[in-house]
Amino acid sequence: MEQHIVIIDTINPTITNVYHSPSDPIEGDTINAYADIEDEAGIAIAEIYFQVNDEMGWTSIPMAVYGGTTYHVSIGSFSEDTEIRYYIKASDASDSNNEAINDNEGNYYVIYILFLPESSTQPTTSMVEETSEEESSTELSEPGQISIRAPINLTGLEIVLLIASAVLYRKHKKMQGK
Ligand SMILES: [Ca+2]
Fold first, then answer.
1. Mean predicted confidence (pLDDT) in 14-39
2. Residue 90 C-alpha to ligand 1 middle, in angstroms?
3. Could you tell me which CATH class the domain 14-116 is placed in?
4. What is the pLDDT of residue 148?
5. Which pLDDT score, from 0 to 100, does residue 162 have?
6. Taking the C-alpha atoms of 36, 39, 44 and 48 in order, what is their torsion angle to the nearest 10 degrees?
7. Residue 66's closest CA among 30, 34, 38, 100?
8. What is the 13 CA–ligand 1 centroid distance (Å)?
9. Model pTM greater than 0.70?
């Protein structure tokens, strides 16, 4: 009489290290999601469930082995200002079909497609840098040149005096040089 020892798998798969790439996508970026999914009995089903903006239902797409215990799926690209929530679900390959969900402890994983107004294509920091460069170049100019570039609302006499003083200043400098 044969004896069978039946081991019943009651342990759910583990789903860890859930992330998406790129982490801060913009419109048109293809979004990939990854997760490490493991079970002693092997994995029968690995899926991503995602929901776009305020839509009611969840869309599921099967995940494929990416390498080792890592599973991967591409959920495509979205337009800017879109919010996508997702979670990962897996079933093991045992007769029990134990299921596991990683939904970031009920908060879901959230992807936000960044809104990039045209005016922000040039970062503010570079504009600040340009301004400061102009300021520093003015400071470095010869005193005579600064006088000539002085306010436009000067009288003709004042302008003549400024030019004269600039010329005198350059002559003075030349003499110092010798
Ligand atoms: Ca199991």
1. 97
2. 10
3. mainly beta
4. 44
5. 76
6. -30
7. 34
8. 5
9. no
Distance between Cα 42 and ligand 1 center (Å): 7
Residue 143 CA, distance from chain mean position: 47
Q: Could you please report the per-residue DSSP string of 124-170?
A: HHHHHHHHHHHHHHHHHS-HHHHHHTS-S---HHHHHHHHHHHHHHH
- Over residues 37-56, the mean pLDDT reads 96
Q: Which two tokens stand for residue 172?
A: 């003075």
Q: In the chain, what are the domain boundaries?
A: 14-116, 138-178
The first and second tokens of residue 112, run together, are 């936000």
Interval 86-93 mean pLDDT: 98
What would the pLDDT profile of 112-141 be if each residue is shown by its tens digit? 999 876 655 555 554 444 444 444 444 444
Residues lying with their CB under 5 A of ligand 1, a single-atom ion: 9, 11, 39, 41, 92, 98
Residue 86: exposure state from Cβ atoms within 10 A (0-12, 13-18, ≥19):
buried
Q: How does the average pLDDT of the chain come out, rounded?
A: 82
DSSP state of 177: H
Give the Cα separation of 38 and 90 in Å (integer).
9
